[in-house]
Amino acid sequence: RGPLLKSLSFAQLQAYELGRIKPDTPYASQFNTQQPRDGIRMPTLAALFERVKALGANTVRFNIETKLDPREPDGTVSPEAMTQALLKVIREAGMASRVSIQSFDWRSLQLVQKLEPSIPTVYLSFQNANNNTIADGQWTAGFRIAEHASLPAMVKAAGGAVWAPNGGALTQELLKQAQALGLKVIPWTINNPAEMEKLIGWGVDGIITDYPDRLRAVMQARNMPLPAPVAAAPSR
Fold it and tell me: Where are the domains of the chain?
């Protein structure tokens, strides 16, 4: 295991190349169509915002996730420090109207709602045979499912604008419940075109995927409106 990211300076982070997954690993086998690129380094969020502005991509939005784990509090900076630093960059770039912030650790979402209530918060959840982030309040900023009629009701009570469950945990009934409460529902991480097709048919409000090209193809086949592509300028 390498050093904690919080222990490294930005200059030290630049020593890591990000253009390829480590070959011959189970993770690499999941993304065997990935095209590696040399010389890719970690950008700052501010640099990403500036690049999108330079491309004239004025309709592009940013769904930013705070990567926190309440079970390992020493592994990252605190939710307060991370959220405040994130909001500072967003404000300085003038991007508050084009951003949503998501997290499995709902503490940071509660902070966003307090410090910058105009930014929509996306409440992630994960429920399967081996994971349950809503079981005991640890991930959910103290909100407990036993005290609410359903998970969508708990997200609504927490002040969320969007509920983002893992695709395997979403049912049509839960989708209807959430939307009736005024929540948008955007499941993750949907990479199979058949699953995309099913969820679009159910009426989800969006889909998180590793393969936007596949999702565009599914949407195009259904004659759904698509965002215009953005011509990428050469990397600097």
Answer: 1-42, 58-188
Q: How far is CA 25 from the centre of its chain?
A: 24
CA distance 170 to 173: 8
Fold of 58-188: TIM Barrel (3.20.20)
Average pLDDT over all residues of the chain: 95
Q: Model's pTM, two decimal places?
A: 0.96
Using a 10 angstrom Cβ sphere, with 0-12 exposed, 13-18 middle and 19 or more buried, the burial of residue 116 is: middle
CA distance 12 to 5: 10
Q: How confident is the model at residue 231, as a pLDDT?
A: 80
Q: Give the closest residue to 157 by CA, choosing from 145, 169, 174, 173.
A: 145
Identify the band that residue 228 occupies on the pLDDT scale cut at 50, 70 and 90: confident
DSSP-derived 3-state class of residue 146: helix
